[in-house]
Design goal:
With 262 residues, this protein is mainly beta. It has one domain (32-261): Jelly Rolls, CATH 2.60.120.200. Helices cover 10% and strands 39% of the residues. Strands 1, 3, 4, 5, 7, 12, 13, 14 and 16 form a 9-stranded antiparallel sheet that branches. Strands 2-6-15-8-9-10-11 form a 7-stranded antiparallel sheet. Strand 13 (196-201) and strand 14 form a beta hairpin. Mean pLDDT is 92; it is low at 6-25.
Length: 262
């Protein structure tokens, strides 16, 4: 091998390493937390049940034990019509959801969640992230996965002051659809980097939201501590009315992995 060829090989290797780092591949990370739901109950050192609230996604949240099931190393979140499940609760539907708010957050890094989603009209499971501090939408929101009804794809989206208040949804595109296996498990991921948000499904990059040069405010508020939310949702302005004949439904979470960038 002559000197020129040797130098070319070294250059190609260096470029490959740089490209891998730029894309945020696995060799750029170290795992800092893995949740495999193998206990007898939810780990309350890391997770809390999401309380009910006024927004559509929180309207039917409940802490009723029947909505939270740990079985075979999986967390199963249920969405049901409230026909005697919780007689003291006047809500028509009941849904389960958990988050790490106040217990675990990450600024830059990667989050992956392996999950299986049962489908029904009016059902809206989601895996997403919100900032520990700041008001919505100024402090941002990262939707790793939202599925509506019987869709064979999910939405992956960022929300900010720039995209929501200023309505700058296309420069750059703030959302995209990603195909999934609608009947099986999929791995939903996001990488939060200083210059972009990178979404993936089953290890394949599906959407990138970059930081851009702009004189408009709030385009890229990311980089502060964000916590994780995983929840089953029923009805709302976006997803529409539920078909009660298709209920109950389940959202099965196999594991959650969190990585810090090296």
């Amino acid at each position: 091998m002559n000197r020129i060829n040797a130098l070319l090989i070294i250059l190609v290797c260096l470029l490959s390493i740089h490209d891998a780092n730029a894309r945020g591949e696995k060799n750029s990370y170290r795992m800092v937390w893995k949740e495999n739901f193998r206990g007898k109950s939810i780990d309350h050192d890391r997770w809390s049940k999401i309380p009910r609230g006024k927004p559509d996604w929180k309207r039917y949240m409940s802490d009723h034990e029947s909505l939270y099931e740990l079985k075979g190393g999986k967390l199963i979140l249920h969405g049901v019509e409230n026909k005697g499940t919780a007689p003291e609760d006047t809500a028509r539907f009941l849904t389960g959801g958990i988050f790490t708010k106040g217990k675990f957050a990450i600024s830059y890094g990667k989050v992956e969640v392996r999950a299986k989603l049962e489908a029904a009209q009016g059902v809206w499971p989601a895996i997403w992230m919100l900032p520990e501090k700041g008001n919505w939408p100024d402090a941002g929101e990262i939707d790793i996965m939202e599925r509506l009804n019987h869709d064979d794809f999910v939405y992956q989206t960022v929300h900010t002051h720039y995209t929501h208040t200023l309505n700058e949804k296309k420069n750059p595109p703030h959302t995209a659809k990603a195909k999934i296996n609608p009947d099986g498990y999929n791995v939903y991921g996001v990488e939060i980097l200083p210059d972009k948000i990178v979404f993936s499904v089953n290890g394949k990059v599906t959407h990138t939201y970059p930081k851009i040069d702009t004189d408009k405010e709030g385009q890229f508020p990311f980089g502060t501590p964000y916590y994780i939310l995983i929840d089953m949702q029923i009805e709302g302005a976006w997803v529409g009315k539920a078909n009660i004949e298709e209920l109950p439904v389940k959202m099965m979470i196999d594991w959650v992995k969190v990585y810090e960038r090296l």
